[in-house]
Amino acid sequence: MTLDESRLSHRFTERGGVRLHYVEAGEGPLVVLLHGFPELWYSWRHQIPALVEAGYRVIAPDMRGYNLSDKPAGVAAYAIDELTADVAALIQAAGAERAAAVVGHDWGGGVAWAFAMRYPALLERLAILNCPHPARLLAAFRTARQLRKSWYMFFFQLPKLPELLAQRNDYALFRASVQEDPRRPGAVTDEDLARYLEAWSRPGALTATINYYRAAFRPSSMRDMGKSPRIDTPVLVIWGEHDRYLGSELAAPDPELVPNARVTRIPDASHFVHYDRPERVNQLLLEFLR
């Protein structure tokens, strides 16, 4: 399904002095789509029209630090408490009559997991695309296999060097991630890529987005990852099995922590499962949200 941008409204809301950009479309129950790294709201170009057509109101923000949203200085501005509070502010600003469904991919999935733990009253359903539950990820960091896959997370802890390398050769590292990782030919066209390049090149964007990883690896954040309250909300995990960043064994959350979870694996999809198999992802989301 093709995204008709004339049907989208571009809006801003503010929380704690940080202005957040989001697109909105449709009418009905609220669905919030949280993108991952290194993406932007446009990453949901295949899901937005399908959800709107099915009778949902969709909000897809640029997460703080990305694209048209503000890029506050300092690592602390990207702590998980700040990121989840942004999602709460978006839902409250929308004036929804009931709790929202939240869908997150990659880093957006990490924020969505944390949001479910911190703001259960605002959440009706939770869908996660290729992002492990925090407790699963923390345990995986004790294995050599996942440490090899997560090398870039540790590299991002260095000051300045990651930003310098990321922007070399017209953002070659990021381009390789979003355009070469997907297994479906043409999943990210040159026209699509231009949207990403525009977002990456905005002043302060590289440091802001990498600061997500720096904030996550602070000792207090790592301790919080080990303290995972139970999530009773219905949860759908969609997992592309050809994920070069995360082992497929991380897909299923601990049933004691997430008792109402269902995992659907897509064997011919990458980490960017919603790029590779958009129709299948849309089908799964719509079945889950009904």
TrEMBL record:
It holds the Pfam family Abhydrolase_1. Residues 29-278 form the AB hydrolase-1 domain. Signal peptide: none annotated. One of its GO terms (molecular function) is hydrolase activity. Keywords: Hydrolase. This is Epoxide hydrolase.
